[in-house]
């Protein structure tokens, strides 16, 4: 053996170790949990318990916000790396269980190298210091710039364009938001207020959810807003967030919520969350969104002439119904989206029939008349992606008719035949089935017609009630009358809601 100096030997050993690590660990790659419509969403190996997200907003909605996201999770399998979904922000530092960690980005994943191998079944705390950029294609979702600030529109696949996380509704978690903004602005988020702290010329607003929530339902509003309080059924605190200048003008609409909620409770049981309200954003979106406890509405819905009162009422009921269907009971995979929209559209149409003599049957027939054309223009035709393997099935209440609760009742294993549809059978309907998380690294980006359809329909085309639809996406926006077939009908797939 030739003589090798101690220094050279150390250098060779270091090189050998680096080579060994490089040979052992493949290069970072984006992963998913096997959603056939969004193969890259979600990540295997851990279950998020809570998010604590701090945003610092300097008053300009064209500039990236400084942010810190802390994720409390539990590993479900041994991990050497942790993948998070994240895009539209720069990451400056990551800690895993208190130790500084290396990281890399690939496509829309942030891949964190664990300082040491992490076994299955242990707590995992990840802190990411990053920015959150509100600039980007509105069609892709995420931050929504308004005339006076920001709001969020994250459905279906855009929460990770605001904050890092496990961006799939199969992994719901508790959320705490801490928003620091200039003192003249008002910040509101999902859940209930925890504290408001003034420091110099800024105020930090803290909100926390009392129920688990899907990332796509996160909502943060920052603007020159008024918060309007009232009381709903059983003393439920209601709060609406509206442009301050519009408070009086919008009151005739806002005051409808208690009666609408009482009507919904007569249909399906008690409201499932800690609060509710409308967030009226001063921007034009062409859609509404059922963000949990604080549904997003575009201001023109209430201020543009031409929308009959019954129509606006039914849209409000649609978003309210989603709090039960889509939020409290939430999809296990995005293929289950029809469960959200089917129920919300059903109660929307029922409400219009009972309160405004708008026959449900006529609206449904109009929708069916148009559905073939919609599917031909942008719907899924044939999907070939692996199915998730369900290991247990848990539901939240009885299918269709009775109240839905976050507390779940085991209802048995799904049959293989039904697994692909998410249908568990009468009385066992829901969609909270936990898959055995799979490492999915698709060979190609999710560009199937199915994925395109969901994006177009959830982002831009559920707006076809008075905006664009798949067949007219490249054309000028169109504003059909609300009484036009497909313009206002439940199940018509009209305006995105
Ligand atoms: Zn909807």
UniProtKB/TrEMBL annotation:
<dbReference type="InterPro" id="IPR001930">
    <property type="entry name" value="Peptidase_M1"/>
</dbReference>
<feature type="domain" description="Aminopeptidase N-like N-terminal">
    <location>
        <begin position="155"/>
        <end position="215"/>
    </location>
</feature>
<dbReference type="InterPro" id="IPR027268">
    <property type="entry name" value="Peptidase_M4/M1_CTD_sf"/>
</dbReference>
<keyword id="KW-0645">Protease</keyword>
<feature type="compositionally biased region" description="Basic residues">
    <location>
        <begin position="456"/>
        <end position="470"/>
    </location>
</feature>
<keyword id="KW-0378">Hydrolase</keyword>
<keyword id="KW-0482">Metalloprotease</keyword>
<dbReference type="Pfam" id="PF17900">
    <property type="entry name" value="Peptidase_M1_N"/>
</dbReference>
<keyword id="KW-0732">Signal</keyword>
<comment type="similarity">
    <text>Belongs to the peptidase M1 family.</text>
</comment>
<dbReference type="GO" id="GO:0008237">
    <property type="term" value="F:metallopeptidase activity"/>
</dbReference>
<feature type="compositionally biased region" description="Gly residues">
    <location>
        <begin position="486"/>
        <end position="497"/>
    </location>
</feature>
<dbReference type="InterPro" id="IPR045357">
    <property type="entry name" value="Aminopeptidase_N-like_N"/>
</dbReference>
<dbReference type="GO" id="GO:0008270">
    <property type="term" value="F:zinc ion binding"/>
</dbReference>
<dbReference type="GO" id="GO:0006508">
    <property type="term" value="P:proteolysis"/>
</dbReference>
<keyword id="KW-0479">Metal-binding</keyword>
<dbReference type="Pfam" id="PF01433">
    <property type="entry name" value="Peptidase_M1"/>
</dbReference>
<feature type="domain" description="Peptidase M1 membrane alanine aminopeptidase">
    <location>
        <begin position="270"/>
        <end position="372"/>
    </location>
</feature>
<dbReference type="InterPro" id="IPR050344">
    <property type="entry name" value="Peptidase_M1_aminopeptidases"/>
</dbReference>
<dbReference type="GO" id="GO:0016285">
    <property type="term" value="F:alanyl aminopeptidase activity"/>
</dbReference>
<protein>
    <recommendedName>
        <fullName>Aminopeptidase N</fullName>
        <ecNumber>3.4.11.2</ecNumber>
    </recommendedName>
</protein>
<keyword id="KW-0862">Zinc</keyword>
<feature type="region of interest" description="Disordered">
    <location>
        <begin position="406"/>
        <end position="497"/>
    </location>
</feature>
<feature type="signal peptide">
    <location>
        <begin position="1"/>
        <end position="22"/>
    </location>
</feature>
<dbReference type="InterPro" id="IPR042097">
    <property type="entry name" value="Aminopeptidase_N-like_N_sf"/>
</dbReference>
<dbReference type="InterPro" id="IPR014782">
    <property type="entry name" value="Peptidase_M1_dom"/>
</dbReference>
